[in-house]
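Lab meeting prep.
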Amino acid sequence: MIANDVLRRGLSTTLVETDLAGLGRLVRGKVRDSYTDGRTRTIVVSDRISAFDRVLGTIPFKGQVLNRIAAFWFERTKDVVPNHVIDVPDPAATRCVECQVLPVEMVVRGYLTGVTSTSSWTAYQKGARELGGLRLKDGMKKNEPFERPILTPTTKAEYGGHDQNMTPDELVAAGAVTRAQWDELAEKSLALFAAGQAWAESRGLILVDTKYEFGIAPDGRIVVVDEVHTPDSSRYWKRRSYADRMTSGEEPETLDKEYVRRWLKAEGYDGDGPPPPLSDDVRVEAARRYIEAFELVTGTAFEPDLEDPRTRLARTLGAR
């Protein structure tokens, strides 16, 4: 595991945002800065962290962790669902085929959990007994598994906006996707989630839920884009302690940004108004959890690149 002094060194060199000339038009998202020339998209993963649809600050080495774990999953699942990756020229950047991104986030849930207003547990507490086409029984406990994974899609909001839950029929009626596209997205999403859960179990983890984005490649195929099974897009729990913690009423041990969400909730923040600033201790602990997730999922040690990220990215991406 990476030393604490290295994590604290990283506090002063986090990648907030980029401005790389010569790579094409810049599109800035909550976490990623994308550059497109119409044929190739270069995705730079910053160290920004978001929760409750807001950017909260930065976490040391987060961009490197997310980019490298996404690269691991893209390679591992390429025979399950094709993806947009061309190559990975930098620890925090990936070059991809430019695709027409479909305006839908495919959220797959395996467990009744969460703390946000859009979580399955929040909906259940408010009386919802049908989610993603699955009828839920009364008396379910938080963090209990569903009978089968469910799909609860949302719209894909622009930076600064909020994703909206929509049913498949609503998405089709709104023109976001066709019925045939929805059917294909659903099939691909559930196949990716099954592959992810199987690998996670072999690594002593539970892949609880996740979200996928898809695009139409130049050859007309629907491919998975953006990221797959990263600690930002997915919730991971440690399997070894799950049963005991369920019995005692404790929250599962988590390896994703749920730690930051819970910290914000404890500070009284639920997404309204300006968020409280993240302390250095919270930022370091979040970094430790991101890195632990990388090492547990991939089975390899995380070796951070300590060079100034702006200098490194300009060199590795050939920016002017």
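Slide two material, second protein:
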Amino acid sequence: METTRRSVLMGAAAALATGGQLSSISPSPAAAPPAGKQAPGFYRYKVGDYELTQIVDGSFTVQSLDGFVTNADKAAVNAALEAAYMPRDQLTIIFNPMVVNTGSKLILIDSGYGAAGPKTAGQLQANMAAAGIDPKAIDIVVISHLHPDHINGLVGADAGILISALGNAMPAQDVAYWMDDGNMSRAPAGRLADYFKNARRVMGVVSSKVTKYEWDKEVAPGITAFATVGHTPGHTSFVIASGSGRLLVQSDVTNHPALFVRNPGWSAVFDIDGPKAIETRRKFYDMAVAEKSLIAGFHYPFPSLGHAEKDGTSYRLVPIAWNPSI
């Protein structure tokens, strides 16, 4: 017999008439107060023989999107957010460093915000501990570029070194840009000027442990750096290769994919050279599509992994399925 809404209601009425109870639909008091916080954020997976761990450093919600996309109006931005079932007029940006365990080396790629950032960020240390990774065991920290959410986690609130790795590898081109007095003097007041000051603050603490790397060379076992400039003049992405496994680490080629993967011709307010960032983005995603590569994105929704597909003149990110085994 076909089950209909009418038959269900009639059955319920009959149960009540004969003294039955519908306790399953009766509200009951909560057994405990709500936790009010998430579980630790980390996700492990394999690339060849390497074990990788994506680690959440937290997030920050931009409360006004005025000017966030420099070459699109807010109506178009809100339409893109709604298409992704996200709230209008705000954007939550997530920060996702990663740890690569090669079997002989433990490598951290980008260090998150640390203490000098939003209160909702700076969770790297706690989430590394939850993942069973001792920050003191990190052999090398590889930095993609010198924006605050990528380097501030190197330095503690007391201006001491927070991650005591053997060394910090930073892109030579980006270090040259941020440490150039002429570039700093020409930076307009506001975000860019603050970024110059912040880069120098961090470098003042860790400079003795910094090694500058060049593009198209290994920066650590199995990790090769390549130029993806535009977001910053020395912005760098990585290929992680082990056996037949391969991962593209896009760093900040895009900010949130709902905006900048779907609309690769948009430029974020954080892009120092918007047109160059757009050109780089298309080249990167054309490569990723052609190779069917797995991509890790620093600002992708957690666990910050997916594959890209071409969609006309745009792209679509297909997030990975969460795998309970490694």
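Talking points for slide two:
The longest strand covers residues 236-242.
Residues 180 and 317 are 37 Å apart (CA to CA).
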